[in-house]
Amino acid sequence: MELLRGLVQTVVIIVVMAVFMEMILPGGDMRRYVKMVMGLLIIVAVLQAAAGIIDKGLAQDIPQVAVPEAGPGVVPLEDILAAGNELSEINREQARQKYAEGLAKQVMSLARLNSSLQVADARVVLDEQSNKISSITIVVHAAAAGRQDDEGSGTAVNIRPVTVDVQGGGREPAGAPGAAPTPAERKAARTMAEILADFYNLPAGQVEVVFR
Amino acid sequence: MDILQVSGIALTGAVLAVVLKYKKPPLAMLLSIFVGVTIFLLVLGKIGSIIDILRQISYRAEISSFYLGLLLKIIGIAYIADFIAQVCRDADQGAIAVKVELAAKVMVLMLAVPIVVAVLQALLRLIP
User: What is the CATH number of domain A88-156+174-211?
Assistant: First the structure.
């Protein structure tokens, strides 16, 4: 009975409000449009009021908590709060990971639009505090393009290009273990990094392409 | 009383506009715009109290203030568009008036999308 009383009260208030609002509607051609939106709003209000009574389970998602004051098996409040915080931290970390994975997939599909490079993987590192993108690393197969070219031209022997490193003393460049990218590949990688940096509004240095 | 002020401004503006219409038509149009804006600004202060009442009623009816805000925005758009379209019609620019009304309709429909989604969600919630 109390619920019904509440529903009738709410509907009466909604009707009064609708009449009041109709008075301030503009005249002319625009009136019909505003009236339509107002009608929708009234439908929402009435449905919400009705749903609160008909579907009580949906309206009251959170059950009432009845915690006994003390006794055997009663966990102290501090422990519950600590466990809650721990759970919240785990959830946050998982959400961060999912976000990073989703971004990495997006980056990879964007990078793969460039057909001149064979993108193997993409990694996105997020900032701990702000959850913003800290760096993007794209792993590219270095010899892929060369191999494709060779296959296209019908060359039988696939010879890796010889690189003479005069200054490096045999040391591999950082972030490129065993990589031997051609100048064309380097150029394509630079372009791709710039495009990705623009797309995610990052400084160019935060997008790195690694050849493997 | 405010209504006397508004009436006085409107009457003076109308007489002046009629006089100017034959001597300098562009000035007459400018005058009508000026009078319209002045009357609009005079009553603008009173709209605040109406909005307060609407907010209180919506709070009692458990309507989200977000939806009420949307509705008020829509009413505002409709009023402004109507006002400008009327000014354009007075200046014999019916085509521009139609375009203003079209823009207002598009904006109103765009703002109505969250309410349409809310109706859908409420309907789907009712289905067992």
Answer: 3.30.300
In a domain, B53, yes or no: no
Q: Which domain holds residue B18?
A: 1-46
Q: Do A26 and B79 touch (CB under 8 A)?
A: yes
Domain boundaries in chain A?
Answer: 2-59, 88-156+174-211
- Which residues are CB-contacts of A41 (< 8 A; sequence separation ≥ 6)? B63, B67, B68, B70, B71, B115
Mean per-residue pLDDT for B53-66?
80
What confidence tier does A67 reach under pLDDT thresholds 50, 70, 90?
low
First to last CA, chain B: 57
- Per-residue burial over A119-134, b = 16 or more CB atoms within 10 Å of its CB, e = otherwise: beebbbebeeeeeebe
Pair B15, B70 in one domain: no
- ipTM of this complex prediction, to 2 decimal places: 0.77
pLDDT band at A57 (very low <50, low <70, confident <90, very high): very low
Closest in A25, A30, A37 to B112, CB measured: A37
Q: Give chain B's domain count.
A: 2
Question: Could you tell me if B37 and B73 lie in one domain?
Answer: no
Q: What size, in residues, is chain A?
A: 212
What's the distance, Cα to Cα, between the start and end of chain A in Å? 74
The beta-carbon neighbor of B82 closest among A28, A43, A47 is: A28
My answer on whether B24 and B69 are in the same domain is no
Find out whether A17 and B91 touch, Cβ atoms under 8 Å: no
- For residues B42 and B71, state if they share a domain: no
Taking contacts as CB-CB distances below 8 angstroms, the residues of chain A near B116 are 40
